């Protein structure tokens, strides 16, 4: 089936088999391998992307369902000059990753969270990120990173809020 959607702001037209997942379409047809596949049945969150601004499990969507949509993947976080997004910088700074397998999904969930709730405190971060599983970090560094990124994006020189 012919499918047209935008990925990270670029229009993409593909001939996609109806059974092909969005994750496979992104990884194999678009070459965007930053979207990782772990469980492939909607549990781990590694494949999280934004579809029309909402987090979606790319392993649970068919590629054809993205027709006409705007998809953002982890590659879309990169700045125009290749610089890291403040969320990526915060993950590095606060040890929010070890093997990095979960990281793309974590970043996309965190991006949506901070877009919708820029002042999210630690409890909100834990709650909203609970659909993303990490086998390495123990989560503390991830929460620290999202909290710090929120402060940076708000331009809060005093650092994270205590809420
Ligand atoms: S690979 Fe999609 S939720 Fe685990
Ligand atoms: S950093 Fe290894 S799974 Fe999260």
From TrEMBL:
Give the 2Fe-2S ferredoxin-type domain ranges.
Answer: 1-77
Q: What is the recorded name of this protein?
A: (2Fe-2S)-binding protein
Pathway field: Alkaloid degradation; nicotine degradation
InterPro entries, per database record: 2Fe-2S-bd, 2Fe-2S-bd_dom_sf, 2Fe-2S_ferredoxin-like_sf, 2Fe-2S_ferredoxin-type, 2Fe2S_fd_BS, Beta-grasp_dom_sf, Diverse_Oxidoreductases
Q: Which GO terms describe its molecular function?
A: 2 iron, 2 sulfur cluster binding; metal ion binding; oxidoreductase activity
Listed A to Z, the keywords are: 2Fe-2S, Iron, Iron-sulfur, Metal-binding, Oxidoreductase
The protein's matches in PROSITE patterns, at most eight in alphabetical order, are given as: 2FE2S_FER_1 (PS00197), 2FE2S_FER_2 (PS51085)
